[in-house]
Structure formats: structure tokens, C-alpha cells
Amino acid sequence: MLYIRMAMTMLVQLYTSRVILNILGVTDFGIWNLVASVVVSISFITGPLTIATQRFISFELGKKDFEAVRTVFSQSILLYLFFAGFIVIVLETAGLWFLNNKLHIPESSIGIANIVFQLSIASFIFTLIRMPYDATIIANEKMDFYAYMSIADVVLKLGIVYLLLVFKRLPHLAVYAVLTLFVNFLIMLIYRLYCRNKFPSQTKINFKVEKKTMKSMTSFFGWSLMGAFSVMTANQGVSMVLNVFFGVVINATVGIATQVGNAVNQFIGNFQTAFNPQIVKSYAGNDESRFISLIINCCRISYCLMMLASVPLIFNMESILRFWLGQIPEYLTVFCQLTLAYMIIDVVSSAINMGIYATGKIRGYQIAVSVCILMVLPLSYLALKIGFDAPSVIIVRLLVSVISLAIRVITIGRNVSGPIVSRFLKLIPKMILIGIIAVSVPYLLLRNIETSWFISFVVDLLWAAGVIYFIGINKAERNLIKKTVFRHP
């Protein structure tokens, strides 16, 4: 049921993107994504903070040291409060200057863009305050609540889009930003109340600085920040480079492609989120065999789920986008297809990344992978400068993803004494075989048979599901699926 709810969340997100585009229009939608990119350019700090909080809470739970869990939560609150203040200062100075002086925004929309910017900062702060509670829920493996709240989040955000139709005389972009702020505040409040009720001892805040814990967390956070900064620079920097070469309309294309990718990635990400605390706890409990098995199984199943979601979408993308959006911005089809392609590599990398973070040995790893990811920006600029079309930046991203995966495999092999690298290398031929067979029928169907996109999508989906069922998963997992599907009340 957890994964059914995640699939529902993905579908609602995709539908919401269509409605937003239709109501706001291409220009306002592009401005929304461009302004959001300025906020995101500093909010990358939250990722490492959340990872550090989840990792340290899960680690202490794995050791069954509940006093240490409470200490970690309190120290994380102090870190979040400090960086909330820091982020506001940076955004209200450098961010505001960049918005008004460097971005290509139509003169008639610059006032609304500034209003949206301020509301986006406030919305982000509420999301930031929620993060320690989010980490506590995940570390305690309360995935049902996590899934329900994911649905509530996207349904509320769909609801506020339709509320725009009520406020016809007001600027839709500003109203949308106000309503988004309200939703983020409400979701934050629900998370806090849930944690205070379910984990009162873990979430009791002590504002005293515990030097040993704070030092460990800030060190881990600092090196994680390097990786997050490189990802932010690659993603947001490329978005701004595209804006320089192609104007604000290309940002609408990037925004929709990103939302498609995020919707699919959330489905896979929630699955990996369920693995994450188990991986950390097994390492903390010195159960290396289970630790390695969890990572390899997470790689395999994540890849299979991503193929299941991506194959029917990639081969029917143009028809789906036309049905979904009505109008298709330039380059959108190929942007979405290539985004899903590099995400297939990234989901495997994410599973290995969990294992590296569990060990806590991340300094050398973050330096290596950050340098690799940062190469996306100059290579993308070079590709556009010498005359390649806009989708070339996604091809660059795909190549960098492959190199980053290799770095992660080498790193975890050095951090773990067990045979994790050999087991991963044995998995690669199987993943390649699944990929080749999964795309064969959709490719032949696309090239040789004229049919409706819906029938083609269903056939591609069923084919990919069959390939994964018979090749991608083992007998025990097949039996579990049979038991779940055919169980009696």
C-alpha cells in the first residue's frame, strides 16, 4: 500500500504541473521556476543538514542509545535555526541583487517577481523548520505517515492551483506564492505535532550546545555541504546558463522537465528512504553482511522501479506531454526523455551513497564527486557556446552521472571491508540485460506499429513489469508479490 500511495502522489504531481502551466501561462510559469531557482541556490544547505540529522539519529537508534538520540535532535534544531538566519541574510542581499540585476525577466513582471521572491523565502523557512521532524519520522521508520503526508502535500498544492480561479482579478503568480506559503506552514505544523505526540522523549529540545555531538555533526554536515553545493551549482547554474542563451521560455521547459523527473524520483526516493535507516542501523550494529545486502538489494530494486516508471514514459513522451499539457514548449520532449535517462543512473548511485554516508567517512568522497559534478557547468556552457542545442546540457549531465557512479563504487569499496564491490560488479550485467530487454518491445512498437499512445503506454508498462518480475527480482520477492496481490481478506 505504501508504494500505491507513492504512485498516486506521482500522478497528482504530474497533473498539477499541467494545471499550473495552463493557469499561469508559459511566461509566468518560467518566472516562477526562475525565482525559485534563486531561493534553491542557497537552500542547498538544507540537504546536508537533513542527511546529517537522519544519519546521526538512525546511528544512535541502531546502537539503542536513546539519550544520544535526544541530544542529536536538539543539536540539529540549533543548526537549523542558525542556518535559517544565515539563509535569510544571503537571500535578502545577494539573492535580491541577482534577481533584479542579472536574470532576464520581462520589465512588466519584475514587481511580481520580487513579491514572489519574498514569499518563497518565507515558504522555504517553514520547510526548513520541518526538516528535523521529518528526519525523526524517517529514522523511526514511520513510513505510512510519511507517505500519507506526501499525498496531503501534493493534493493541497493541487487544490491551491484551482483556488487561483477564484481570485481572477489578482495576479495569479503572487496568489499562487501566498497559497504555497500557507500549505508549507500547515505541513510543518502537522509534522511537529505528530512528532511531539509519537516521540516526545526524542523531540524534547534542549538549547544547550553539546560540543562533542555538535562537532561530529558539523564536520559531517560540512563535507556533505560540499556535495550539495556542487549539485546546486550544476542544476541551478545550468538553468541560468540556458536562460542566458535562450531566454525565460526555456526555463519553463526546464521547470516542467524537472517536475516530471521529481515526480518519478519521489516514487523511487520514498522507496530508498525506507532503506536508509536500515542501512545506517545495520552499520551501527556491526552487521556488515546485512549492511552489504541492503545496499545491493536497494541498487537492484531501485533500478528496476526506475525502469518500470521510465520505459513507458520515454517511448510515449511526446503524446503524453501533448495530452497532459495541451501545448508543448520547445525541446520539452527530449528534455524529459534525457532527464529520465540520467536518473536511471542516479538512483543506483543514491543507493551506494546511503552506504557511504552510513560509514561517516565522506571527506575524500565528497571532494572527488563534487569536482566531477561541478564539471557539468563549464561543459554545458561550452556545448552551447559552440552551437549545440539546449538538450546537450542533459547529455553532459548523463555522462557525468556515469562517472559519479564509478567514484561512489570505488569509495564504498575502500570504506567497507566486505565484498561489496564484487557483488555490485556482478549486478551490472543483470541490470544491462534488464534494460536491453525492457526497451526492445517498446522500441519495436514505436517504429513499426501505429496505435494510440494509451495502448502503447499500457503495453510498454506491462512488458517492463514482466521483464522485472521474471528477471529483476528473486523468487522470494516474487512470492511476496503473489502473497500481497492474491491475499484473502
Bin the helical content.
Answer: over 70%
Q: Provide the low-confidence segments as ranges.
A: none
E-strand count:
0
Strand content range = under 5%
Helix/strand order: HHHHHHHHHHHHHHHHH
Q: What is the general shape?
A: globular
Distance between the termini: 15 Å
- What is the radius of gyration? 22 Å
Structural class by secondary-structure content: mainly alpha
- The averaged pLDDT comes out at 84
What would you say this structure looks like, in words?
- With 489 residues, the chain is an all-alpha fold.
- The chain has one domain.
- It is 85% helix and 0% strand.
- It has 17 helices and no strands.
- The chain starts with a helix and ends with a helix.
- The model has no long low-confidence stretch (mean pLDDT 84).
Give the gist of this structure.
By secondary structure, the protein is an all-alpha fold. It is built from 17 helices and no strands. It has one domain (2-485).
Question: Could you outline the blueprint of secondary structure elements for this entry?
Answer:
Layout: H1 2-43, H2 46-62, H3 66-101, H4 110-139, H5 143-163, H6 172-198, H7 211-246, H8 249-284, H9 288-315, H10 317-325, H11 332-359, H12 363-374, H13 376-385, H14 392-415, H15 420-448, H16 453-472, H17 475-485
List keywords for this structure.
single chain, 17 helices, 489 residues, globular
